[in-house]
């Protein structure tokens, strides 16, 4: 009786839920079967990393992208693919700086010593004999060799050398933007300004010397040009007291005359050939060194010298020296390389010795035989 009542209740329940007793029994049976089976255990699959070989095959036409060939090996199968990638920006090619001498074609001039200077002149001061000459009449920018005329004008003006001069904003180089160890407001005597301008080519010192001339810088430049004319330097022209302007020009012939004139003053000889000098602008000690390493060499006997460099002029050097007891004037302009003018002076000195002359004679004889 209890089983009959339970059967009636079950029938009513399935009737209300919309499921027939047969469907319920079938679902129950399937559920038992499913639950009795164990779920398969999935094995973890470790994917192998693909082996990739890449190389650049060619660049695109605009040079901003490159086509890269990639070879990938996955599960033993080799796959090839091509991909465009951005190329690393290339460094801009900086063209070589052309000096005024190069633009004039002076670099095409050959000489027996293969000098790096486009212009050279060597004179025996004892008898004014020209020993070596190369493009010596061409007027070129002379850079800080200008300061040799600056010193000559200052010395001949006989101004108070102990007068204290102040570096101002007007002395700051706004043309080449060159650096200086003398800050605006620094104070030095005229004597110290002249010393470091000659020895170390201090631009602000040279500017202060010209600016503190009676009448100012314009009067000083006029005095420089007047002095050049009085020395017979007809290919020479100055526009400032520093040489930073490429409009300061002269020929090697003219500069040889300037060297001889400046050599007459002991103060110019001493200051230009000192290898070291210390100044104290506004009480702060500064050690300056010569711009010409030959002044500290025991192999050289230099009585006067001045170097110079700007891009338009190349490296320049003028000297009064003694070689085998002879007073020799050397002028080198528009030399290529930081120490090339010094190297040219060394080659020239060797050539002027007896051994050098003998070697040159032998070279000429060989060339004559080959010709």
UniProtKB/TrEMBL annotation:
<dbReference type="InterPro" id="IPR012338">
    <property type="entry name" value="Beta-lactam/transpept-like"/>
</dbReference>
<dbReference type="GO" id="GO:0016787">
    <property type="term" value="F:hydrolase activity"/>
</dbReference>
<keyword id="KW-0133">Cell shape</keyword>
<keyword id="KW-0378">Hydrolase</keyword>
<keyword id="KW-0732">Signal</keyword>
<comment type="similarity">
    <text>Belongs to the peptidase S11 family.</text>
</comment>
<feature type="signal peptide">
    <location>
        <begin position="1"/>
        <end position="24"/>
    </location>
</feature>
<feature type="domain" description="Peptidase S11 D-alanyl-D-alanine carboxypeptidase A N-terminal">
    <location>
        <begin position="111"/>
        <end position="336"/>
    </location>
</feature>
<keyword id="KW-0573">Peptidoglycan synthesis</keyword>
<protein>
    <submittedName>
        <fullName>D-alanyl-D-alanine endopeptidase</fullName>
        <ecNumber>3.4.21.-</ecNumber>
    </submittedName>
</protein>
<dbReference type="InterPro" id="IPR001967">
    <property type="entry name" value="Peptidase_S11_N"/>
</dbReference>
<dbReference type="InterPro" id="IPR018044">
    <property type="entry name" value="Peptidase_S11"/>
</dbReference>
<keyword id="KW-0961">Cell wall biogenesis/degradation</keyword>
<dbReference type="Pfam" id="PF00768">
    <property type="entry name" value="Peptidase_S11"/>
</dbReference>
